[in-house]
User: Which sequence fits this backbone?
């Protein structure tokens, strides 16, 4: 049985496990982004491996001159002392879990490990074969276990339990990184993605897509989000915003016409949604004052 959503009313939660006697994990965090916002400035984490797991939504990172786009259920790593940030991309709507772990060269202990085991595990983390890869839903539930155990102050052997939970999560990350790359979407979800790209905006409804790919509406919603990391309604909305960007850049249609052409009930609602995903107003792009990157 899947656990209930963790701390549903909090947008940002951070833990420093050094407070529990685990200085090798100085930051564990959850960040729920309800609309697009200014992205990260370039920065580094001295001696720290940062592991980001995107539960849902979309997020961009820029490392080593390359741009990466995370979708829901993706993992992204920045290795110790690497300069990284969002480039010129805003942070998109979504939910991010992340953990920073200190990787000393000659550790005496590491979480629940000691001696050669500690050294070997740290070496394995430093040598993870990929920076950006697809995870699995264990990463969500194992991560939430860290928080639940940490928050239970009366729990016997709490430090050991939290250390073991962090180890379990790190092992799951390593397993996901070692899997061969593969297409994530099944044929029916691939078909849905092609339909969303091809159908006029007003016709790309969840009900229509479910019928066309041969799934019940409830099964289609669940399967689509599991495989793409984004709920189908939000995915469709993102595609409409991407089309809006192209029309506004073209400059031949006013904002109101773009809104109605893409199936929005009003230009006001269109402007609200556009800003949620891009941080800008449609009129900003129409006047050529800004050029929003993908959120």
Assistant:
């Amino acid at each position: 049985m899947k656990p209930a959503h963790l701390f549903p009313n909090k947008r940002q939660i951070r833990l420093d496990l050094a407070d529990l006697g685990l200085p090798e994990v100085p930051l564990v965090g959850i960040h729920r982004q309800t609309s697009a916002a200014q992205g990260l400035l370039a920065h580094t984490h001295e001696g720290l491996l940062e592991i980001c797991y995107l539960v849902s939504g979309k997020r961009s990172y820029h490392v080593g001159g390359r741009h990466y786009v995370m979708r829901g259920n993706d993992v992204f790593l920045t290795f110790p002392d690497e300069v990284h940030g969002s480039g010129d991309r805003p942070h998109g709507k979504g939910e991010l879990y992340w953990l920073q772990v200190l990787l000393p060269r000659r550790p005496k202990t590491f979480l629940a490990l000691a001696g050669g085991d500690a050294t070997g595990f740290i070496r394995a983390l430093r040598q993870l074969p990929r920076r950006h890869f697809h995870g699995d839903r264990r990463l969500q539930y194992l991560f939430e276990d860290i928080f639940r155990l940490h928050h239970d102050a009366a729990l016997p052997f709490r430090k050991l339990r939290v250390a073991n939970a962090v180890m379990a999560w790190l092992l799951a990350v390593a397993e996901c990184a070692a899997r061969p790359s593969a297409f994530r979407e099944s044929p029916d979800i691939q078909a849905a993605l092609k339909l969303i790209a091809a159908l006029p905006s007003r016709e790309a409804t969840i009900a229509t897509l479910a019928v066309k790919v041969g799934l019940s509406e409830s099964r289609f919603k669940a399967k689509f989000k599991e495989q793409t990391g984004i709920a189908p309604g939000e995915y469709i909305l993102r595609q409409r915003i991407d089309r809006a960007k192209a029309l506004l850049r073209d400059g031949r249609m006013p904002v109101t016409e773009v809104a109605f052409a893409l199936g929005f009930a009003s230009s006001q609602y269109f402007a609200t949604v556009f800003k949620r995903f891009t941080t800008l107003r449609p009129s900003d792009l129409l006047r050529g004052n800004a050029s929003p990157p993908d959120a």
User: Anything to note?
Assistant: The longest helix spans residues 158-178. The longest strand covers residues 48-63. The mean pLDDT is 85. DSSP finds ten helices and ten strands in the chain.
